[in-house]
Amino acid sequence: MAQRNARKRATSRKSSSRSKRSQSPKRASARKPDAIRMLKDDHQRVQALFERFERTRGETQKEKVAEAICNELKVHAQLEEELFYPAARKAISDQDLLNEAEIEHQSAKALIAQIEGSSPANEKYDALVTVLGEYIRHHVKEEEGEMFKKVRQSELDLAGLAERMQARKRSLLGGPASRAVGRLATMLGAPATA
Fold first, then answer.
1. Low-confidence ranges of the chain (pLDDT < 70)
2. Can you tell me the distance from the alpha carbon of 19 to that of 119, in angstroms, rounded to the nearest whole number?
3. Most CB atoms closer than 10 Å: which of 27, 53, 103, 175?
């Protein structure tokens, strides 16, 4: 019986190491830069911040969370407008989808400006952040449900685009104010930006 148990353990170790080897390419590809994955990570981070805002009490904390939301969205929108959307325009034929996304960005930027020009002492402050959150959820649903699928099916070099987007994001986040917001987002429980 002891020999049988020893054989089972040896067989189990072999199959375990085989399964780890078969997972290696999958894990390696998960680390490979991908523009769509990068944008989806941003979406998740912002969604977590909106959820945090809904739970937050106290004007100072609300203002900090709203500031983090606005800064994340401004950087994200700039990456999409400067790099992702132009590349997507060349890769897919659905120009209406891209035009709509750009117009949604303009509306979101107007709400962001109102939030940044206000404070939690304003009776409409929470409503501004809530409406921005609803607007962003709608925008994300269309991007992830339609645009990203079409782009993924195209021949666009998503790894190369991700590298350019990461470099641009680093330059946008390079200032002291941006680093402070990144620390704030981390402190509030949102994953750090790439």
1. 1-31, 175-194
2. 54
3. 53
